[in-house]
Every structure is written in structure tokens, then in C-alpha cells.
Amino acid sequence: MLKIAIIGVGTVGSSVANILRDNKDIICSRAGMQLIPSIGVVNNLNKKRDVSIKLTDDIDLVLEDDSIDIIVELMGGVTQAYEVVKKALTKGKAVVTANKALLAYHRYELQELAGDIPFEFEAAVAGGIPIINALREGLTANHIESMKGIMNGTCNYMLTRMINDGVAYDDILKESQDLGYAEADPSFDVGGFDAAHKLLILASIAYGIDAKPEDILIEGIENITSEDIEFANEFDYCVKLLGIAKKVGKQIELRVNSAFIPNTQMLTKVDGVMNGISVIGDKVGETMYYGAGAGGDATASAVIANIVDIARRGKGSPMLGFKSENLENLILMSKDDIKTKYYLRLRVEDKTGALAKVSSILANHNISIEKMLQKPVNKTCVHLLLSTHTCMEKDINQALKTLEDEIVVTKKPAMIRIED
Amino acid sequence: MLKIAIIGVGTVGSSVANILRDNKDIICSRAGMQLIPSIGVVNNLNKKRDVSIKLTDDIDLVLEDDSIDIIVELMGGVTQAYEVVKKALTKGKAVVTANKALLAYHRYELQELAGDIPFEFEAAVAGGIPIINALREGLTANHIESMKGIMNGTCNYMLTRMINDGVAYDDILKESQDLGYAEADPSFDVGGFDAAHKLLILASIAYGIDAKPEDILIEGIENITSEDIEFANEFDYCVKLLGIAKKVGKQIELRVNSAFIPNTQMLTKVDGVMNGISVIGDKVGETMYYGAGAGGDATASAVIANIVDIARRGKGSPMLGFKSENLENLILMSKDDIKTKYYLRLRVEDKTGALAKVSSILANHNISIEKMLQKPVNKTCVHLLLSTHTCMEKDINQALKTLEDEIVVTKKPAMIRIED
Fold first, then answer.
1. Which of A97, A226, A328, A333 to mutate to test the interface with B (most CBs of B within 10 A)?
2. Whose CA is closest to B406, among B398, B394, B395?
3. A389: distance to nearest CA of chain B, Å?
């Protein structure tokens, strides 16, 4: 059993407590032990919160409590958070944090201080995307040649709207603030600083390089105009705010800036509030990681993954993720019960009533047509290409048999499933 | 120190041995110990191979050798490979395998047999993409709602060519065979069986469900025609071979089939021989993983990641990937030395000679223009929007200063970097 204290019970902290409750069975089965969110620390006990965890405003009491195994630091900021995690480590408690600013400034001191005590921070970069995990474990065979990432959802949302909908910078900033994507003072996001903190963390794992935000080039998206977007469109570029790390000989180039990238690159497909990070290893080539870079539940997903890692320390992950006795008792669905949409290719005689015949056979099997295209084959035949609304595999298979025997259908029908 | 034997020294086996030699410093620094590829087992000692490892054809001698810590099984096939890994586990040796067929049939017996002995298989699904790692560790907080993946590069290459270039199925199959992407008997790939093996492995980790290939729906891409692709284009679908796993109540839907998917989905951007797997968790939402699904070095990258994991067992990964004493002595590049392409937005007087003036200032700073667009601003001014060939940050910054002072330039110039 591991007992967990959550320091800072805002959006992410509440999600951590609630997910540990809601998904308890599967999480504990994967961890191989009970994980108990025992206490949350907040500044203001009177504030109403939708969270199931017991709360206190006495942080020292929690840090001194020997029954607490893991401190989840979600208070944000640098100075006070640094003091809190230092104290936690001194007391031998494992630490999980989502605090990128803390790590941008103090990651090497913290590594030193942690020693063999687990200190995990998956949520600090790109929210729910397991990019730290990929870089720290999945790509260890590689020299990392470069990393390029869309690591700030606010900027990416704004740029996507500017590009797709021609909205001007000031208007989209106002909209993002109204939607809660951008802060009242947006400079931390739109100025590139948030992305820079994340980039510095990734660069440490890839290159072991110790740099601070003030050491690197950081530019934001504030000066992008409609002319720039016009030029980009004209020459098939997309505008993104990128965190970039590149190995050039024995030097590491680190910078955050808005950038034109060719529309052939996967990163240009990462739109809206989503994040995406492309990593090029000298052996694996390009891999890319995509997902939600922010949001309470997505970020909490990464925090809890770290808690599970800590629970598994010393014994490794179970080979198949679960031990076989921990199954959820799920069963394989019968093929007949699959439900989806279907596309059918039917070659039929080119005569009045053929479509009526086909539709009626489908209707008799509870299948309704959504879209249809007719293409001539030769003088006597046409292709009916059609898609259905959602129906059952069993019904489609029976309908296909009936269609095959139907005289207006001149060739064995073909079917492809549609995944909307 | 861990000593490694490689059983099967073909494309992937050679890559494993060679990468362990070429990237030795960084790999061992990340692993925290020496990893020694000490012997390779082959059937035919007389075959010429480009590999640095000592070879033998006596597999029993290797399995009996108490100095060998890790068996890397790359022989392929089910029956003999199963005997080999069973024997390795019985002797207490850790196992790393890329053998998807072995796992599709025997993963639960092997988990049972392995007990606390490490048994790893990242390379068995999607080559170099760390998808097992993501699913087994990164997403443990989530009930997995669904997984959809492009897990067979051969099929994806063929479909991409059929869609983009209108090549017919038979022609592209022939081409893929000539290129070495498809086997002489292509049915394992184009029939969906390879993808099914991978899907079953992922489904075990996500759902703990034990199913065999013969239990699930498996269809390939053999029957896709130009009419189907026309229909897909007409209604903005893309055709892909997908492995699909979905949780529907207490049932798990598992199937491999060619599918129409809407072009809005990220998976439709996964083209050519690349693989991509989209996973939807109930908390994190969609995450996607993209990269090379095959090839010697990419697959070896995953095999070696597993070897490093085994070396780290019991102590966890170093917080920042390396211990601080293991740095590669890389240094941060000075901002001035950054080299890239640049886009410049200049507002200039609309008169003869303005462009000449601008070009000449750029040329004086070793900057040459690649592309240019001119856009009217008002009666007296135009925007010159231009991109440069690769040049140095230092030069661009000086050029921007000179341009700002130049009389034909009527507003402070703006710059965006281009990442080709």
C-alpha cells in the first residue's frame, strides 16, 4: 500500500484524487498494490471543491507525516515548491510533480538530492502524452539527433484559428482568454516561456545538458500577422510555435520560436489545443507523440502513471501490464456482434429497379443506406458504391449472401468497414 | 555488466549487435552498466554477415552458459522459438524478443513461466515505436476505450501508393516485392495476420484479454479496387488497414480489417511504410504514437531499449535519463551560431530600387533570398515577404538592424524561422 498526499488541489489535483477513486480497480491492479490518496493540502479550506479527498491547510504536518509515501506537488511556482519537494525528499518521500518551472530551474539539484528516491515528472511536459517515458526508456538505444515539438496548446489553438479561419492575433487572444485557454496575462504562453521550460526538461533527458530559460533563445507568437500566414500558405508551410533541440557536433542548439514548417511534416497535422513532439533518433529515425498537452484529467493521467511506476519500483512492470489474476473479467466479443458502418461495392445490371431491389434486401436485414455513388462499368452493368448507417456484422453478412444470390447483382459483392 | 546472446543474427540481430557497439557509450551510460553482446547464434556459420559479434551454431551451449544474462530471441517462428525462450527462462535468463507470432500464441504461458524474470518484447509491435512502454506504463491511469492502429508497413505502403498514385493492387504488390517490402508469399502481411498478432499483444496489455489469432476477425487489403478508393475520395475518407480494439461494456471487440476512416483523423496522415497507433483512454483522451514499424535499426532500437530496462531493474530509470556524471560533455550552442532558413516581412516604399536595396543589404550579410512575395499595403508602401537560404542567426540579426535603419524600409522588419 502507498499513501499519497496531494499538495495543491486545483484542477489537476482534483483530477488526480478523483481518478484514483474512479479507476481504482484497474490502477491498483496494474500497480500491484493499493494506492491511497489520503490527504490534500490547500491554502483555503473554505473554497468549494469537487473532490473526494480529505483536505488540510497544514503542509508541514503532511510533510512530517511518516505514513505518507508519495508527495504529489501540484502547487506550481518555483520557490515554495522547491522548498516543499526538498523537504519531502529529505524525509525520504517519493515525489511526483507536474511543475515545469521548478524543473526548468532546479532539475539537476533535485536529481542530486533525490539520489535513489523516486522523483517523477511525466506531467511536466506535454500533459498526458508519455513523452518523458518514451525518451527516458523507449529511445535509450539512440543518440537523439533532434526534437521538435508543439508543446503549448494555447499557442497552437491560436495559430490554428489564425490559419484556418483568418482570425487576427488580437481577436483570437481575446477569444482564448474567454475560453479559458489563455490567462489574463498571456505572456507566459504566447511569449514561448512555457514551451521553453518543457524543452529544457526534454533536452536534459536527451542530452544531459544543464541550461536555464535565460540561456536560450525564446520567442513567441505575438508578432505573427496575416501577411505571414499568406506567405506560408503560398509556399505550403504551416506556422507553429516549436520547441527545438538539435545536436550539432558537440553543441546543442536549443530554442523556442514560431516557425514555418513544410506541410509534409506530421507536426503540421497537430491542430488546436493538442500537442505533438517529433523525435529523431540516429537508429530509430523519426517517432512522434501526440495528445492532449493540458487539462485536468489528461495531466492527472501522467501524474498517476508516475505513481504506478513508483509502486512497481524494484519489481518492474508486469510483462503484460496486469498479472493474470488481476483481469477485469472482460470477454472477447463474438464477430457477429460487431457494430459499425459498412461500405459495399455491388456490380448490378444497369436497369430500372436494380437499386430498389438492393435497398429492399438491405432494409430486410435492418440496414439503411447513408451515401451512394453510381459508376458505369460497361453497357450492361454499373457499380453501386454505398455506405450504410451503423448496423450489425451478422446482418451485413446475411445481406451480402442474399445479394450474392440476387439476379441483378452480377458479381460477388465486396465490403469494407467504416470507422467514423 | 550484463552479457547478451543474440539468437538469430539476420537484419535485426545484426543491427542489435552493431548498435550496441556503435552507441555503446550513450547506451551504457543510460543503463548504468556495461552491456556486452557476447555471442550470436546462427544456423549457417558460412553465410557472410556484416556484424561484429562472435558467432556459433550451437544454441544449446549458449542456453547452458551461465555467464549469459539475457537471451535476445530473433529467430522468428513459433515452435522452436517457444522452446528456446522456455529453456532460457528455466535457466533464469532474462528474455527480449521481437517475435510477435510467439506472443500471439504463447504470451500468457510465458508470463506465467517468467514470473519475476524479465521478459520484454517492445519490438514485437510497431518496430521502433515505444507503444508497449506507453501502454504498459504511460497510460496506466486509464481504462483504454479503444485502440486503432496502422501496424503493418507493407500494407500501408501499398494503400498509400494506390490512393496517391492510382496504382492498381496487383501492380503495387509486384513493386513492393521488388522493393523488398513484401515477401514472395505476401499473404501474412496483406491478409492482415501480421497486424493481428500485434493487435493481440496490445489487447492483452490494455485489457488483459487472452485471445488467439483464430478467435478474431482478420481481413486484409487484397480486395480493394480503384472504385473503393474513388468512393473514399468522394466522401473524404482514407483507406487503411487497421488493427482495432474496443471496449464495449464487458466485451472487447478485436479485429483487423481494411477500413475507411475520415480524413480528419490523425491516423490518415500516417503514410508509406510508417506505423501509427491511436489509443483513447477514458482520462487522457486520444494519444497517438508514430514511427517506423520495421527495418533492422528501428526494430533493434526497441530491442535495446528493453535490454536497458532490464539493466535498470530494481533501481528505476535515472531521473533525467543519465546520471550527472555520465554526460556526453555536450555544450549549449550560442544563439549567434544557430543556422537555419528565415522568413522576413519588410514594409518598404513602393518605388523602383527598393527591392534592389533590400537584396543588397542581405547579400552584404551573406544572406541570399530563396522565395519572394510582394503584397500592396497602401498607395506608398508594399510588403516584401521573403525567405532566405540557410544562413546564420548572427548575420540575420545584423541584417535586420541595418534594414531597420534603411530609409526605404518604413517599419521595423519582422522575422520567423523556417524549419525545413
1. A333
2. B398
3. 14
pLDDT tens digits along A140-149 = 999 999 999 9
Question: Which of B298, B35, B237, B78 lies closest to A371, judged by CA?
Answer: B237
Relative to beta strand B251-262, strand B237-248 is antiparallel
Determine whether the interchain pair A130/B134 forms a contact, defined as Cβ–Cβ distance below 8 Å. yes
**Is the CATH code 3.40.50.720 the one for domain A2-127+317-326?**
yes
User: What pLDDT, on the 0 to 100 scale, is given for residue B324?
Assistant: 55
Q: CA–CA separation, B168 vs B159, rounded Å?
A: 10
Give the side-chain half-sphere CA count within 13 A for A142.
Answer: 32
Considering only the beta carbons, identify the residue of A142, A291, A393 that sits closest to B287: A291
- pLDDT beyond 80 at A92: yes
- What contacts B154, CB < 8 A, 6 or more positions away? B176, B181, B182, B186, B189, B190, B194, B273
Torsion angles phi and psi, residue A244, rounded to 5: -125, 130
**Residues of A in Cβ contact (< 8 Å) with B217:** 335, 338, 393
Residue A141 and residue B300: Cβ atoms within 8 Å?
yes
For residue B327, what pLDDT is reported? Answer: 60
CATH architecture for segment(s) A131-292: 2-Layer Sandwich (3.30)
Smallest Cβ distance to A309: which of B137, B284, B326? Answer: B137
User: Distance between CA B397 and CA B414 in Å, rounded?
Assistant: 11
Q: Which residue has the cell 548575420?
A: B395
Q: What is the mean pLDDT of residues B328-357?
A: 94
- Residue ranges matching CATH 3.40.50.720 in chain B: 2-127+317-326
Whole-number pLDDT of residue A73: 98
Q: What is the pLDDT of residues A268-304, one digit of tens each?
A: 999 999 999 999 999 999 999 999 999 999 999 999 9
| Prediction ipTM score | 0.96
| Cell 500516417 belongs to residue | B270
> Cβ contact (<8 Å) for B31 and A140?
yes
* Cross-chain Cβ contact B260/A309 below 8 Å: no
Look up the CATH architecture of domain B335-418: 2-Layer Sandwich (3.30)
Task: Say whether A320 and B205 touch across the interface (CB within 8 A).
Answer: yes
User: What phi and psi, each to the nearest 5 degrees, are found at residue A91?
Assistant: -80, 5
Nearest residue of A to residue B297, measured between CA atoms = A283
- Backbone angles phi and psi of B342, in degrees to 5: -130, 150
Nearest to A279 by CA among B21, B272, B289: B289
Q: Annotated active-site positions of A, please?
A: 198
CB pairs under 8 A between A and B: 407
For the ranges A6-10, A38-42, B197-201, B313-317, which has the lowest average pLDDT? B313-317
